[in-house]
Input
Amino acid sequence: MVLFPPMINVHEATDLIHKHLKLPCYGEEVTEDILADRDYPPFHRVMMDGIAVSWNVFREGRRSFPVAGTFAAGVPRGKLTDFNSCFEVMTGAPLPEGTELVIPYEHLEIENGIAKIIVNSERSEMENVHLKGSDALKGDVLLKSGMPFNGPHVGIASSVGKALVPKKFSINIISTGDELVEVNETPLDHQIRRSNVHAIRESLRLHGFHEVELSHLADEETAIEDHYKKASQNFDLLIYSGGVSKGKFDFLPSMWKKLGVQEIFHGISQRPGKPLWFGVDEKTNTRIFGLPGNPVSSLVCLHRYFLSSKEVYAQLVSDITFKKDLTFFVPVKISSDRSGVLKAIPLPIQNSGEFSALASSDGFLELPKDQSVFKTGEAFRFHPWRPM
Output
């Protein structure tokens, strides 16, 4: 009987992957401090369509103002010279010099060029004005180096003239096995269609990875080795589906060892997905995931160790008992109520090859190995199949 070496646990595996692989799904990092190149906003900015008036004149009791002109966003700042009059101003326009109050149209009646305030309410100086420099002053640090950037971060950088463009991250997904045929082929009784790689590619696409190619290799050592030598030169990450267990035709771990790839770990105390392999080829700066070939195992490992980012928790709606000393990943259907609490409905699954059982699932719960009875109402980490 061939045994795995002593297995590490889920958290040790996670730490090792984070150490050796900068997970791009967490976002590309800002490589320098992003500073405000001027005050933001760079002028007193009108926040509502309406009229701009002198605060002092308004405070003295005037409620009717001749309209002296109109200013829209994108035009230079105007100047009010007759303080008893007003300007019509649009959202985004610079507040005209000589005015310190914006009154919205819905509080006004404008007839024959005269704006009358018809809604009396408490008002304050610079009301409905986005004050110059209130967001940031010139030289302020807006984004710190090392922050993972997202959409808002890209917008902030763009506003100060910096282009944050994520580096391309190329991935090759490789299926192995003589039993696999293409999707458009009719399999013989002893064959199955090549489905894992398509499920993996779609999962990657949903998480923003688009530089993905598919390959297939028969269980032939020379072909596997030749492909690896070329692929490791051209891709940042290689994801293999199958070929990493202890079967007679599972050539990958020995091939990687022969070619000088550093094995970081092989085997995790979890179900499903125990044979997961991870390594680094320092010569080509390529990272390699060897996913188990069983469909459920491969998708669980991909999402748990590569695609999961923020922590989300869901409550069990029924008890689960699992007495093995393993972390247990359970497919679940998710629901929620008006309280906002996510509820996890466990789905029955017989084994890690039962792909169809995932059809109604939204993801899986991670049940810790130091516990054997998991009670209704307890919350555990939820890993969704698609980003939440």
Q: What stands out?
A: The chain has a mean pLDDT of 89. The first strand starts at residue 34 and ends at 35.
